[in-house]
Amino acid sequence: MAHFGRWVASVALGMVVAPLTVAQHPSRTPKAAPDLDPEIVAAVKEVSPARVRATIEKLVGFYNRSTLSPADPASIAKGRGIGAARQWIFSQFERYSKECGGCLKLETQSFIVSPPARRIPRPTEIVNVVATLEGTDPANAGRIYLVSGHYDSRNSDADNVTDPAPGANDDASGTAVSLECARVLSKHRFPATIVFLAVAGEEQGLYGSAHYAEAAKAAKLDIEGVLNNDIVGGNRTPGDHMQQPQWVRVFSEGIPAAATPEQIKLIRATGMEDDSSSRQLARYIREIAPLYVPEFEPKLVLRPDRYLRGGDHLSFNEQGFAAVRLTEYREDYNHQHQTPRIANGVEYGDLPKFVDFAYAANVARLNAATLASLASAPAPPGNVRLLTKNLENDSTLTWSASPGGLATKYEVLWRPTTDSDWPQQNMEAVGNVTQATLKRSKDNVVFAVRAVDAKGHRSLAVVPLPER
């Protein structure tokens, strides 16, 4: 299963490796900028701010999308409530699937949450809407990358289903990203599988995402990365000069929530608090951005989420999956979890007029480029180890071949222990081997290994565990 087990599997290692001393290898090459994939370029170009705006405004038009709001046939017929919203979301996935010849597998995931569950005063049906673009390569289709937003909303009172709860930014914007990614990526095909998800119950307590993540773990799905988009609409409040329209925050956990006490002990002993699989996913997003969305910069935040707050990606973290959250740089709390009103000259409410649709479209572009890159790339190498039997300044890494047969070579990355990002120049292309020795001290750098295919698509990086 592609989650924490890949990060801290058993230290036992039994594999055949082909040795290589990188410092002496004649084919050693410095890192070069990868070629752009024309399919990914085309998909990113297809993202439309107008379509993002139309989606957000449509969702706001359901008046109140509280998880507790009506979902009966009469309310749906009137276009009011969460039931009408989810039917519309499903219809959009249906439309995209029809346009691509039935390429999307559509389903809903329904379950009941009852008191004494938090913020659930009565038994309530919660429904996730799922569209799956299955991978084309049988050896890689089991690998899954997922994008998500929550389509429920709330106002000043989490139980209020009477007053408007427009939820334009929180989180019609994230749902719009998931839908727009489905629209543009369904026109292309990838070796691995991409899932487009819209969940409910987030405002009550992450119920929809928790149910999906728990079911995925029970089914042993190989989810290699989750991009959760929540509050990604930017902010057009007049006079707010603190918002940064060229930045998006990417939150990722350090010590994995699913780590056992023994695993946490190993993480601390090796100083790997900054190297969870979620943190590697965040770094991947940062590396993709200048290639396909150069005008937009992910800012990697070394926290699981905003200060003492949470979101749907945490549900996946708790089940051991790599997951991150994308959120605008500066939230405006007058336009979040507020019943629309004007008080003391201040306008409250999460309304479309305060959303920057061009910003939300850039978030969608970044998501689409990341998903397409990951789904095109080989699987990460397995059993990555750093040999520590001898005290020496050279460092030898071993790994098992990337499963699925897409990899044609591997790259070893390193960064100083004082840094949190992989410097672009710190890479050794080591060829199609499963062992490499670098003339660099493991005391001074952090290493990682990734797989590369013939077209230059790169997998997620994997940081080694010690092998004595």
- Helicity range: 25-40%
Strand content: 15-25%
CATH class of the largest domain: Alpha Beta
Separate helix tally: 12
Using only C-alpha atoms, the radius of gyration works out to 22 Å
- Give the biggest beta sheet: 8 strands, mixed
Mind telling me the CATH superfamily name of the largest domain? Zn peptidases
Approximate shape? globular
Secondary-structure content class: alpha/beta
The H/E string reads: HHHHHEEEHEHHEEHHEHEEEHEEEEEEE
Query: Which blocks of ≥5 consecutive residues have pLDDT under 50?
Result: 4-33
Whole-number count of domains: 2
* Oligomerization: single chain
**CATH architecture verdict of the largest domain:** 3-Layer(aba) Sandwich
Amino- and carboxy-terminal Cα gap: 25 Å
Average predicted local confidence, pLDDT: 92
Would you count the extended β strands for me? 17
The CATH topology of the largest domain corresponds to Aminopeptidase
What strand order characterises the main sheet?
Answer: 1-2-4-3-5-8-6-7
